[in-house]
Amino acid sequence: MSNGSSSLSNRIIYSAWDFQQALSALTFLMEECEYDKKYNVVDLRKFRCFETTLIVSFARPFKTGRGREELDLSSIGYELTAEESDLKDKLIRLRDKVVSHSDEEEMEYRTFSIQPFDDHNVRLPIARFQEALYLEEAEIYKIQTLLKRINRALAEFQFKEVQLTPREFNRHKKPTSKK
To answer: Could you tell me the superkingdom of the organism this chain comes from (predicted)?
Structure first.
């Protein structure tokens, strides 16, 4: 991977952080949302924020870009089950088509106008959006198990690598862009 001397690449280190962020967002969602309860729009949007962070953080390690390669879980000794692979694919599809990008194929909304005053020809635009979560409750528990298993595999991999090359792990990576 990086520098040739160790498998502890920036991708693996940051992926561990991404998966921890995803698990935190999932935990917040599980603590506050009861799936069989009806919520107002503000609460639904708060839950959607947790869900969005879960989806984006989970998918980030599996996306390429800016010189980064996709995280290959087999490189850390982790093999996805068929069910886990389906969950991963769904989360990445949600990230790509719905959450991080506004793909027109996935959009759902209704627009209309109203004329609030009988004596004026003024019309007001109204837009109604799909205000619901993308993931079902049963999927949430499966994602939690998957995240815990991946986090454990990453921690075990890092532990083994740091035993082999402790100096490689001692680094301070700073942003290269100027803020």
So the answer is: Bacteria
User: Token pair for residue 94?
Assistant: 């949600």
Domain presence at residue 151:
yes
- Domain contains 1: no
Task: Report how far residue 76's alpha carbon sits from residue 30's, in angstroms, rounded to the nearest whole number.
Answer: 28
Q: Is 60 helix (H, G, I), strand (E, B) or coil?
A: helix
Query: What value does the mean pLDDT take over residues 71-75?
Result: 93
- Window from 45-54, 126-135, 142-151 with minimum mean pLDDT: 126-135
Q: Which two three-digit tokens encode residue 81?
A: 């089950």
pLDDT band at 156 (very low <50, low <70, confident <90, very high): very high
Total domains in the fold of the chain: 1
On whether residue 138 sits in a domain, the answer given is yes
> What is the reported pLDDT for 179?
64
Question: What is the spatial distance between Cα 113 and Cα 111, in angstroms, rounded to a whole number?
Answer: 7
**Considering the domain boundaries, does residue 174 fall inside one?**
no
Query: What range does the domain containing 77 cover?
Result: 10-169
